[in-house]
Amino acid sequence: MPESGAEGYDYIVVGAGSAGAVVANRLSADPRNKVLLLEAGPASNPWSRLPVGYARLLTNPAANWLYSAEPEPSTNGRRLPVPRGRLLGGSSAINGLAFVRGQSHDYDTWAQLGNRGWSYADVLPHFKRMESYQGAGDDAFRGRDGPLRVTNPESRDRIFSTIIAAAGQVGIAHNPDYNGARQDGIAMSQATIASGRRMSTAQCYLAPITRRPNLRIETGAVADSLLLDGRRCVGVRYAVGGETREARAGREVVVSGGSVNSPQLLELSGIGQPERLKGLGIAVRHDLAGVGENLRDHYAPRTRWAIGTKGITFNDRGRGLGLVWQALRYAFTGKGLLGMVGAPLRAFVRSRDGLEAPDLLLGWVPMFTEPGPRGPRIARQSGMTCYAHVMRPESRGSIHVVSADPRRPPAINFNFLSAPIDAELTVRAVRIACSIMTAPAMAPLQVTEVAPGAQRRKDDEIIDWVKQVAETTYHPVGTCKMGSDRMAVVDARLRVHGIDGLRVADASIMPTLTSGNTNAPSIMIGEKAAAMILDPAA
Fold first, then answer.
1. Is the previous residue joined to 452 through a cis bond, with omega within 30 degrees of 0?
2. Which DSSP string corresponds to 253-322?
3. Where does CATH 3.30.410.40 sit in the chain?
4. Residue 125 and residue 324: Cα distance in Å, rounded?
5. Would the CA dihedral through 148, 393, 86, 226 be positive or negative?
6. What is the pLDDT of residues 335-358, one digit of tens each?
7. What is the spatial distance between Cα 475 and Cα 477, in angstroms, rounded to a whole number?
8. Which of 132, 171, 257, 533 registers the highest number of CB atoms within 10 A of its CB?
9. In 3-state terms, what secondary structure has residue 458?
């Protein structure tokens, strides 16, 4: 029973992002469950519904935590931006909208690490349950009537069809459904866009259920700490404005703050590495060495290519009268530049022959951008950007609090390229991108290499360039790792080791990084977490 002054619920979900919104939806589907969903940010942002609005949200403090990483040698001392969604839908409400499950190898690896129930065969039903896929595909792999609408645009634009042809000339075949039986190949990006609108978890999982009487959604609620009674989590202390509140959970608290905020909340609650917490004046409640460790992300240099043929890229078609036309096109059809996924074309490739599965990802954006006062804007120079990165990096970093104040951002240390294999494969990814962009099919577009540039051809020269320009692809995972080893934070049912009544359900539980964008896997984690909570046998 709740203590005096604290409201009582069956379940409290902290964080209404890609996974948390799903958990709250599924738990509250049973009217007997009283559920509280806490979100630190606002309910919405007007830019979120517009697909291209991510360009405005990447630097918008009204919808974004705006974290940044610590300087490190692999970034030449730069502080890389780490945007994280801070509104209902979390990062699914500000991301680039690409829908990539990853490959079966990713989840089979999780199971082989001892996480029973997380093989591809185990998670596939949850992927199918969550999606309503509008494209052609095998129903053995795709879902047709889930909450999340996923579309597959056609490659009618000349620049995309040309790149697909160029990839074919270097041995990379077209794959019409990289979320189907196999991931290999090049394809237009499947997207969480439908009828020209972003399909965030706020839109697909929360908007339809806001009137459920057993679900309370509280925005502007910043979690300060978990409430512990011995070795059991019994609730959450949080602040709304200047008011501190407490809520009690009769059954469980589910932390879904994401790979930055979930380890932060555990550490603020005294769960983590004792010496680190003591040094910050945080009372140690539970020794758990892995909290905040095992951070992984995709570190991606952006190759740049000037396009001489006019009218091909969005630099030509997205300025002046061209932008007016794009706005009209979007208003009447929901398509064009304003309704476009962040990287409309992507390729999953192998760094060498004999590999079991692709290990590199390339993604194309049909424009050059430049910094603007409100975020990235279209540059005057006409060109293409192609990012290239390792999909399953071995380099690992950490995220840890630097203060007992929950409003102080934690220190994010990626430790990129610390594993030698990551540097080697990054060079190979860049070389493959260059081979596609210089293939014979590209000649009619009058392509000229801008970066890395003809002056950088040796491996060490390319790595030096990578350190100067590469950024993350905003896919941090792993900081509350699932497993049974000493550094694991949660078990295979996402229960925090040593603490009853507490689970973590978001990208932070991934023991390794999935092959591609992490939004789809995060939603799947929310689905599977809810299923395990509701059915102990699931």
1. yes
2. EEE--HHHHHHHHHHHTTEE-HHHHHHTTPPP-EE-TTTTEEEB--EE-EEEEEE-STTSSHHHHSSTHH
3. 154-188+299-390+417-469
4. 43
5. positive
6. 888 899 999 999 999 999 999 999
7. 6
8. 257
9. coil
- Rounded CA-CA distance 517/475 in Å is 7
Strands 35-38 and 383-390 come out as unpaired
Instruction: Tell me which residue of 155, 150, 157 sits closest to 135, measured CA to CA.
Output: 150
Q: Which residue in the list 286, 298, 475, 497 is annotated as catalytic?
A: 475
Q: Which amino acid is at 394?
A: E
Note the pTM of the prediction, 2 decimals: 0.97
pLDDT 10s digits, 27-36: 999 999 999 9
Asked whether the beta carbons of 522 and 146 are under 8 A apart, the reply is no
User: For residue range 61-101, what is the model confidence (pLDDT) as tens digits?
Assistant: 999 999 999 999 999 999 999 999 999 999 999 999 999 99
Which residue in the block uniquely carries the two structure tokens 């007992």?
404
Q: Is residue 485 packed enough to be buried (19+ CB in 10 Å), middle (13-18) or exposed (0-12)?
A: exposed
Strands 293-295 and 131-133: unpaired
Please confirm, yes or no, whether 126 is among the known catalytic residues: no
Number of Cβ within a 10 Å radius of residue 458: 9
Contact predicate 532/490, CB 8 Å? no
Q: What is the pLDDT of residues 330-340, one digit of tens each?
A: 888 888 888 99
98 φ/ψ angles, rounded to the nearest 5 degrees:
-75, 140
The helix (H) or strand (E) run that includes residue 244 is strand 243-255
CA 128 to chain centre: 19
Q: What one-letter code names the amino acid at 234?
A: V
384 in Cβ contact with 364 (< 8 Å): yes
Domain 1-149+191-296+398-412+476-538 has CATH 1.10.10.200: no
CATH number of 154-188+299-390+417-469: 3.30.410.40
Q: Which of 446, 441, 449 is nearest to 161 (CA)?
A: 441
- DSSP annotation of 350 reads -
Please tell me the predicted confidence (pLDDT) of residue 5.
59
Mapped onto helix, strand or coil, the DSSP state of residue 471 is strand
Alpha carbon distance 493, 200 (integer Å): 25
3-state secondary structure at position 337: helix
d(CA 191, CA 124): 18
Round to whole Å and give the CA distance between 36 and 14.
8
From residue 418, how far is each of 112, 219, 436 by CA, in Å?
25, 39, 28
Q: Are 358 and 350 in contact (CB under 8 A)?
A: yes
Cβ 337 vs Cβ 330: under 8 Å: yes
Q: Helix 20-28 and helix 519-534: axis angle, to 10°?
A: 30
Phi, psi of 188 (to 5 degrees): -65, 145
**Domain ranges in the chain with CATH number 3.50.50.60:** 1-149+191-296+398-412+476-538
Distance between CA atoms of residues 484 and 497, nearest Å: 9
